[in-house]
Amino acid sequence: MIYTDKDKYLEVLNDSLAYLEQRGYENIKADTKGYETPKSYSKVGSDISITPDIVAEKEGQKHYFELSLKSEKPNLLKSKWLFLNTLSNMKSHRFRLITTRGHYKFTNEMLDDINLTDKKLIKI
Fold first, then answer.
1. What is the pLDDT along the chain (124 residues), one digit of tens a residue?
2. What's the CATH number where 93 sits?
3. Angle 64-66-71 from CA coordinates, rounded to 5°
């Protein structure tokens, strides 16, 4: 989810956080009230910064979670996913996408566009 869509999909973010807590994830960080904000990554020479939607740990393994919801700026969303996927691969972390009903087709088309078809979706 990109920053401009944050207010629009706040309920989905809260549902995702509840889902992860039920599944035993700990040290959950999210960019919403009641949670610590995850670390942001800034592009050198630009004002663009990337903040994962949710960062959590389970069994000593760090996980990055990104909400996959329809957006007016799909290219920005694709760039964010590619960056988080590369970052998680470099540091041996996990990167997962969370989506909801009505956004499955959008998510699968985006994954096909950026060749991340091996990603399994968390469907809430």
1. 787 788 888 999 999 999 999 999 999 999 888 999 999 999 888 888 899 999 999 999 999 999 999 988 899 899 999 999 999 999 999 999 999 999 999 999 999 999 988 888 999 9
2. 3.40.1350
3. 160
Helix, strand, coil % (nearest 5) of the chain?
35, 25, 40
Domains held by the chain: number: 1
Burial of 88 (0-12, 13-18, 19+ CB in 10 A): middle
Parent domain of 12: 3-123
